[in-house]
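Case study 2.
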Amino acid sequence: MVAVQREKTKIVIIDDNASFRSMLCEYLSNLDEFKVIASVDNGLDGVQVIIDKKPDVVLIDIVMPKLDGLGVMERINKSDLVHKPQFIVLSAMGQEKTIKLANYFGADYFIVKPFNMDDLVSRIRQIKFMKQSSATSYHKTEPQCNQPECSIENKINRLFNDLGMPANLKGYEYLKEAIKMVLDDISSINSIYKSIYANIALTFNTTPARVERAIRNAIEATWDRGNHNLINSIFESKVKCFYMRPANSDFIIMVVDYIKKSIHI
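Prediction:
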């Protein structure tokens, strides 16, 4: 029997720190599932490399010469590329405002330097898994729209940003995945712990209980510090008084309904 060879995840690294790029390249190249296809030190070259090489994942810094990381993501998302890469921002600038900006411009994940290399590998694997699982599901509902603002990922990022949800919380990422799962299969909300929390826990190498607590924390933080007008407009049918907060499942299903209406599903 001939063994089926798994396709490697193609990675581009864009960072002006030569030693950091070299370390990343060496570490990832030692893992059979990844292939670093290019490594550049500035944003302008990064844009061209992405267009020419068509990577699956781009690891990118924010502050760089010629064009910063936000500019790179903006140009790529506005480009005519059919298969746009997933972006993981690796930056020492871990302020909440910076994280929100990165998410707004299309970052799939934001990891603050310094970080554990195992965490980065987990994020790359998670991105590939979610992209594969979504390729045959809800992304098919928008064939008429190939602009970046039409993607599910960006719609969730922008909604969370508008709600005022702190982007540095783990629950922010867990909620994004939960919402995408429910968009894919609405019945999964009926077994939120066994279906949604368990799958997210497996992806992020944690436990369902921690996923549940992190999501709860993100919702509470949004209610405490977020955009009260938008919160009321989206959740008023579930929350009779602003000081009452929706259950995790109610929050997820209301956001799913909101996004479905915005893309006319």
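Strands lie at 9-14, 34-40, 57-60, 86-91, 107-112.
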